Amino acid sequence: MPDKAFVLDGKTLTVCGSLQAGREDELRRHCDQLLARPEPELVIDLSRVDYIHSLSVGVLSYVWVEALSHDREVSFVVSKYVSDIFARTGLSRVFSCRSPGEA
User: Fold this and answer.
1) 0.90 cut: is pTM over it?
2) What is the rounded (10 degree) CA torsion for 80, 86, 89, 90?
3) Measuring CA to CA, how many Å separate 101 from each of 45, 47, 79?
4) What is the CATH number of domain 6-98?
C-alpha cells in the first residue's frame, strides 16, 4: 500500500495512521469523494487507524447519514481500537462494522 493517509480505490476509502484534531477537513474531503462514487455500497477501511479524534468520528457519522439519505450503504472495516471507540460512543449499534479479513 502506498505511504498515504487516504487511498480511494473504487468503492473503498482506506485510512491509515492517526486522525488527530485538525485532520477532520481532510477526512471529510476524501469521504465526499467516496460519496461521489456511483456504487450503492461503500466501504471505509479504518483497520490501520491507531487514533481517532471525536471530530473525525463526527465526519464518519455524517458520511453514514449522507449515504442512508440517498439509499446507499456504508460499512466500516475496523481495528480493535476503532471498534472500541465505536462501542463506547454507541455507533457500533448503527454502523455496519467488520474486522479486517471478514467477508
Assistant:
1) yes
2) -120
3) 11, 10, 11
4) 3.30.750.24
